[in-house]
Amino acid sequence: MLKYEIIGGKKLKGRIRISGAKNAVLPILAATVLSKGKNIIRDVPHLKDVEVMIEVLKYLGAKVCFEGSVLEVDTTDITVNEVPDHLMRKMRATVFLMGPLLGRFGKVKIFQPGGCSIGPRPINWHIKGLKSLNVEFKEGYGYISGQVKKLKGNEIHLDFPSVGTTENIMMGAVLAEGTTWIRNAAKEPEIVDLQNFLNGMGAKIRGAGTDVIKIEGVKELKTTDYTVIPDRIETGTFMIAAAVTGGDVVLENTIPEHVEPLIAKLNEAEVKVTCQDDKIHIQGNGRLKALEIKTLPYPGYPTDLQPQMMTALTIAEGTSIITETIFENRLKHAEELRRMGASIWVEGHTAIINGVPSLTGAAVEATDLRAGAALVIAGLAAEGKTTVYGVEHIQRGYENLEKKITQLGGQIHLLND
């Protein structure tokens, strides 16, 4: 089992470059199935989730070459339309292949996906959306199969602005006959990135980033060369880490507009944040002020930055309130933070945090990806040594986390227990 050992009390200082976005590159990799030939994707992070998606693409018959941050995917010889159970269990994002495989073959078979245990993320939303494109589904013992003679465009109104559902419908609709409208669509930047990638392949999509997306079906897609957007969650994680340690950090390769909700909250907590072009400069000036935060779909405050901000608020001045509206099990990290001396009371979807003067190092366990990042931040801010178990969760979404922290002067070591 991998673990991090962290010696806290160091102010993070310096500059680092933010990696490409995990939540953008995974659906983009799935979308390569829609064309025949070699797609080139740049600024791809080396992450466990990316490794799993590459493994799936190879299983389907693709040839994949990953050198540096450039990923070449040749889908010419793909013949398989089924994602096996053992790969589906490794990562939930394998569900993104439903739309592309239906577009390529008119058939798909998948098993129930795995991923972080942060609460229900219903696959039935994906199925309902793809059914609207003329797909017929059958369910068996743990698997779902879909079949369609011809995908047909339709007007689809989502019950909830789900990111994954929006992206799956987009990928299913690009080769459909006619026009598809997605209403109450998710607005996340990663959806805009997928639109740009698909349009680079010859798709006709407009409206990503708004709640209405229009997809005019085309007969075929070509290959493209594309650079993924920076990871806004990694950006936000390092912003919070810098603020909570009283640091002075410059983040390069960012899109400040993508983290505006976090910038607003940090300003409210009296942290100085300066943006210029693709750079964000964070200057911590002691303890943060207490905040009230409610997670919401984009452009609201992101659920993926809620655990990290909870860590920051454990040592803020005053009483803070966090309300989690996206995932019902995403307050598990509160218990681990209490091991480090935090004063947190959880009732349902709400956490009340009474700021304490400091945290104390302890042995804690990451229950999911973002909770793991929150515990690393806690370790950096705490007095003494913190051991974080469950590093495998963290490696799913952060490229070279320990190296970047060390580059900023933090004391962190990756060890095999």
From TrEMBL:
Keywords: Cell cycle, Cell division, Cell shape, Cell wall biogenesis/degradation, Cytoplasm, Peptidoglycan synthesis, Pyruvate, Transferase. It catalyses: phosphoenolpyruvate + UDP-N-acetyl-alpha-D-glucosamine = UDP-N-acetyl-3-O-(1-carboxyvinyl)-alpha-D-glucosamine + phosphate. Residues 8-404 form the Enolpyruvate transferase domain. It is an enzyme of class 2 (transferase). It holds the Pfam family EPSP_synthase. GO terms for molecular function: UDP-N-acetylglucosamine 1-carboxyvinyltransferase activity. UDP-N-acetyl-alpha-D-glucosamine binds at R92, D304, I326. GO terms for cellular component: cytoplasm. Its EC number is 2.5.1.7. The keyword Amino-acid biosynthesis does not apply. The active site is at C116 (proton donor). One of its GO terms (biological process) is peptidoglycan biosynthetic process. Phosphoenolpyruvate binds at K22, N23. It is found in: Cytoplasm. Pathway: Cell wall biogenesis; peptidoglycan biosynthesis. InterPro entries: Enolpyruvate_Tfrase_dom (IPR001986), Enolpyruvate_Tfrase_sf (IPR036968), MurA_subfamily (IPR050068), RNA3'P_cycl/enolpyr_Trfase_a/b (IPR013792), UDP_GlcNAc_COvinyl_MurA (IPR005750). The modification 2-(S-cysteinyl)pyruvic acid O-phosphothioketal is found at C116. Cell wall formation. Adds enolpyruvyl to UDP-N-acetylglucosamine. Belongs to the EPSP synthase family. MurA subfamily. This is UDP-N-acetylglucosamine 1-carboxyvinyltransferase. The gene is murA.
